[in-house]
Amino acid sequence: MAPGASAPTRRSLLAGVAALGALGATGCSRVATASRTEGGDLLDRLRAAGVVRLGIAGEIPFGFIDKNGELTGEAPELAKVIFKRLGVDRVQPVPTEFGSLIPGLNSQQFDVVAAGMYVNPERCEQVIFSDPDYQMLDAFIVRKGNPKGLRSYKDVVAKKAKFATGTGYAEIQYAVEAGYEESDILIVPDQVAGLNAVEAGRVDVFAGTALTVREVVKKSAKAEATEPFKPIVGGKPHVDGGAFAFRPTEANLRDAFNEELRRLKKSGELFRILKPFGFTEAEMTDLTAKELCGG
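That's the Ectoine/hydroxyectoine ABC transporter substrate-binding protein EhuB sequence above. Prediction below.
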């Protein structure tokens, strides 16, 4: 699947209640619904099976199948390291649409969501999250030299700029909160289409994550990325964080995962794992799931 194509991206504000799509892996044995211990015993069963099934959404650089048919991306590569430390040697991808990740997790289609999913209060009502492994600011694609001086959503509104963003992106709501009319937003499939729209002059600005924006403009002779910035949400500057999602009954697995994640953060190994996918030290974070869930 192309990055961000057709299905809502991991950064959509939707809580992931779309009906289950066709899953990319079949024939997998399902884990029994009932947990036999308080906090769940899934980790013990994964160790016994030797494999954990990862729900991914086919979005570069967060979780995808590469041109050689191999599972990769920041979340799967991190999952490989953490689950190996937890005694689970193999990971198995289960590709699906982004909107099907939470329903698929809760209906036992896979064991963990490994798709760089943003943590927000709506999703926290349906799943439990690890602490974020990265944080993310927004940025714009603009024409070279940024002729309209667009550096925030307020600038877009004040200068009546033609604005675009991706299908299901959180940036839709960030722009609306700043005062932009939702009906005036040009919705395109992904950041590549956004770059094309800016280069062709169909829009003045495309909004996306700082990471995807800076990567897509690298070879452009006509466009550039703005400096990353915090969108205003509820009147306050906001930072998003991406994490792994677990079924609410499996707190023991989530807690064990968090413990290994903290060790990787402390040692600096987390950054070394994520760096090949375009992440910088500015995207490393001490944010917690509790903070992002609103608790």
